Amino acid sequence: MRTHSVAGIRTNLFIIGFASLLVLFCGAGMASSFPFRAISPGDPLPALTFKHISDGSTLSLASLRGNPFAVVFWGADIDVKKERSLKTMLEMEQMMPFLEERGVRVLLVNAQGDGMDVIREVAGGLGGKIPVYLDENRKAYSDLGIFVVPSVILADRDGKVAAGLGFSHDFSERLRGEVQIMLGEKSREQVEQELRPRMVEKSVEEKQSTRHLNMAMVMMKRGQIDSAVNELQKALEIEPGMAEAHGQLGCLYLEQGRLEEAKKALDRSYDLDPDYLPANICDARIMAAEGRMDEAVGDLQALLFRNARNPELHYALGELYEKQEKFAQAAEAYRKAFELVARQVEFE
Predict the structure, then answer these.
(1) Which domains does the chain have, with CATH numbers?
(2) Could you tell me how many helices (H) and strands (E) the chain has, helices first?
(3) pLDDT in tens, 5-41
């Protein structure tokens, strides 16, 4: 029998979050971007055996020692994982000439125990260049501590972890760089320099649209939503390809209850920049509003992999946990959000 009102629980959650400011330096450490929690770079991989989805033959990671190898752990229990897993595996196929030239073997492993019909459907969307296996007992999840799906582990010829990567817009470039670092072809500094975008002088139009975007952000902080919408629309009239403006406009439309317009703006933002975080957060909120709560939570959890220091992301996740009545998880997410805000204020 429930003895506390929802309002009372929310008040307690707020108090927990606010109290975290008092113990700022006693909280948990920042989550790492490494997508595995039970191993670290330099560790030997555990003894794992996988089953081929077609002929039933088995393959152990130990048998791969002697040559470097990469394993893609994927899942398709919700649409976002299915889409990102397929995209990651297709990119791996495109990289095969580069990898084969360097003797890097690649495996695709379904780590979530999805049904065979789903596994075959996803495998059917690939080019058949890489063997697909099944982790029947889901041991990889526990033994590796898989935190993000899809994720890739890269091992050297001794079977030791060289790197771990999750889904990102620059996945291919990052994996290529990690392979080159592992093989001694390049230093990490060289790879990071190549990945870092060059500074390009903005055009007059870009500067004008940026001014409108910045003014919109000021209006939003003041609570002047209609004025912010107007500024964003002006920005897009000048620069239609501005992902940030589309994303922020979609978030404002969502706040105004204009869901269809919000979806259109957020979709455009995603097309222009899949990694623009505010748009991704608002997209998850739309999923939740439409009753796709598990998918929304899964999306936000995946976003944490590369954005663990963003307070808005933690707060949005807390909101969804609260709607699911997962109050302990909601409190933890709110606490993390308050901690991160406090750190930002401290450094400002």
Answers:
(1) 49-195 (3.40.30.10), 204-308 (1.25.40.10)
(2) 14, 7
(3) 444 445 455 444 444 433 333 333 333 368 898 999 9
